[in-house]
Amino acid sequence: MKNYYKFSVAPMLHYTDRHCRFLHRQFTKKTLLYTEMITEDHLIQSKHKVLETYEHPIALQVAGKNPKKLERCAIIAHLQGYDEINLNVGCPSKKIQYAGFGIYLIKNIPLLTNIVKIMVNASPIPVSIKTRIGLDEYDNYYFLKNLIENVSKYGLCQKFIIHARKALSQGISTKENRTIPKLNYNIVYALKKDFPKLTIIINGNIKSIKDSKMHLKYVDGVMIGRSIYNNPSILSQIDSEIIELKKNIIKVLTENMYPYIEKELCTGTPLKHISRHMLGLFHGFHGCKRWKQHIIENSYKKNSNIKVLEKALKFVA
């Protein structure tokens, strides 16, 4: 197992865009970063730029159900330099439900297995699966075990990221699906025991490096999502094992963003598209509230530039 499998930042729709990933990479060189989820049609139809090398290791997450289209997605991922392509089999949103993929693919194991086989044969980069522990009535361990067994046989998918909640397709929102179904970490631990040769990554309400180290006693890796987005400095601990990141180091990392931001502004990217990912940089430090407030109030203005961040930094001096 590669070292960067131990820690990863969860793919978060509308959050982990290229600006967010560039910021996260300032804190960590070893963490595996994921793109936002992108549908098969969007990926095929879009003209995506080749990734900059600073993002590596980087994985592309896709969602879909058409084997031929996902085959093309796997080829695109390889040609664009991604280190991994991840198939989302865990998203419970209504749009995904209507499209018939995401979490709903786990009801059709033969189709899912065929998709993975085609993707694996299409590209030399690893294919991984991100899923839940179940869906509605499909929520017992034997169902999940059967899913993993079928999708991994014959040397197909060897890496599974398991969100330790089942999903509910009715009665709750996508947001509520991240908190209401109860967590069951023991099911994920059991998978690792039953499939010791597979790479099993755990996900779901993991908030700190301390939590991560506890889970790593039982599984191969940990994926953290919103806790990192709200407090990116957590990422610094992954590379350095520093328990407390000093404010002046965060300031340096913030200033390291300036050349990237200036370049993006010159191409027409509004400052707010980048600065929104930086609001949590000084989480827990004095002046954090004023840092956020100044950026929120000024980054959306016409012709806003790097001076907005420079002034905001003064509030956390």
From TrEMBL:
Enzyme class: oxidoreductase
UniProt GO molecular function: flavin adenine dinucleotide binding; tRNA binding; tRNA dihydrouridine synthase activity
Positions annotated to bind FMN: Q61, K130, H163, G225, R226
InterPro entries referenced in this protein's UniProt entry, alphabetically: Aldolase_TIM (IPR013785), DUS-like_FMN-bd (IPR035587), DUS_fam (IPR001269), DusA (IPR004653)
Cofactor(s) needed: FMN
Superkingdom assignment: Bacteria
Keywords: Flavoprotein, FMN, NADP, Nucleotide-binding, Oxidoreductase, RNA-binding, tRNA processing, tRNA-binding
E.C. number(s) listed in UniProt: 1.3.1.-
Domain DUS-like FMN-binding: 9-314
PANTHER family with a match to the protein in the record: FMN-LINKED OXIDOREDUCTASES SUPERFAMILY PROTEIN
The protein's role, per its UniProt record: Catalyzes the synthesis of 5,6-dihydrouridine (D), a modified base found in the D-loop of most tRNAs, via the reduction of the C5-C6 double bond in target uridines.
Record family assignment: Belongs to the dus family.
Protein name: tRNA-dihydrouridine synthase
